[in-house]
Amino acid sequence: MSLNRYAAKSDLAQSPIVSGLRKCGYRVEIIRRPTDLLVSADLKWWRLLEVKKKAGFRRKDQPSQNLFIDQTRTPVVSTLEEALEALK
Question: Per residue in 18-70, pLDDT tens?
Fold first, then answer.
């Protein structure tokens, strides 16, 4: 039994978002911590994104990540459209 069962769910939503952002010309780095993605349009500014399978979902076993997301106002996205809207 794998202890990494949550990461696989994130990857299902993350892959189409990453590939879609790259097709739109964004530079996307998969960083995983403190959030999933670091995204830039022009390499002058960078934006953090957290990818969840379901929009607005937060795991109760990750209080430090939830606090970081709140403090930095990191968008939590589940689709390419939500990611593009967050990057405007």
Answer: 999 999 999 999 998 899 999 999 999 999 999 988 766 666 667 888 899 99
From 40, 11, 6, 12, select the one nearest 26 (Cα to Cα): 40
The full length of the chain comes to: 88
Taking the CA of residue 71 as centre, how many other CA atoms within 13 Å lie in the half-sphere pointing to its CB? 8
Q: For the domain that residue 45 is a member of, what is the CATH number? A: 3.40.1350.10
* Cα–Cα distance measured from residue 62 to residue 44, given in angstroms and rounded to the nearest whole number: 30
- Whole-model pTM? 0.81
Domain span holding position 56: 5-86
